[in-house]
Design a protein that fits this description.
The two termini are 31 Å apart. The chain is mainly beta. It is elongated and about 65 Å long. It has a single domain, classed as Immunoglobulin-like (Sandwich). A hairpin with a 5-residue loop joins β1 and β2. Helix content is 3%, strand content 52%. The protein has a five-stranded mixed beta sheet with strand order 4-11-10-6-7, with no helix packed on it.
């Protein structure tokens, strides 16, 4: 996050921050087939609440009126804006890269994997390492 401190002739100091967009949780999510996908995007430090937040899957804007159904969005605007994407009855077609794009801030993404209820041996033996906001996470699946 970029912060700038402005000194003024008076006794006041101003701190300007660059807007931050993040999707809560791990950068990769593993969801059981048939479960609900719940993605929460947070936008902070924007000069005003974003007029629009678009969600996409694999670079395709999500159509909330699609025949698939079961897709909803709840957005709460304020000093911190929260946008929750809910996808019911997750199936293999719901796997992919989900991106939250506010109209006045950078985007954030998360990769969603839909599991068929069994752990894949290839995934189970894979050591995953990620950096998230400067912190390193390693875990064994």
């Amino acid at each position: 996050m970029l912060r700038t401190i402005l000194e003024t002739p008076s006794k006041y100091r101003f701190c300007l921050a660059e807007p931050i967009t993040e999707i809560l949780g791990s950068p990769e999510l593993f969801i059981n087939m048939g479960s609900t996908i719940n993605l929460t995007c947070i936008v902070q430090y924007a000069p005003e609440p974003p007029p629009n937040i678009a969600w996409s899957q694999n670079s395709e804007v999500i159509n909330f009126d699609s025949p698939r159904g079961g897709i909803s969005l709840v957005t709460e605007k304020g000093f911190i804006t929260t946008s929750r994407l809910l996808i019911q009855k997750a199936g293999q077609g719901d796997s992919g890269l989900y991106t939250c794009t506010p109209s006045n801030a950078n985007s954030a993404s998360v990769r969603v994997h839909i599991l068929n209820g069994k752990w894949n041996g290839k995934i189970h033996n894979k050591l995953i390492s990620h950096k998230y906001h400067g912190c390193a996470f390693k875990f064994q699946l």
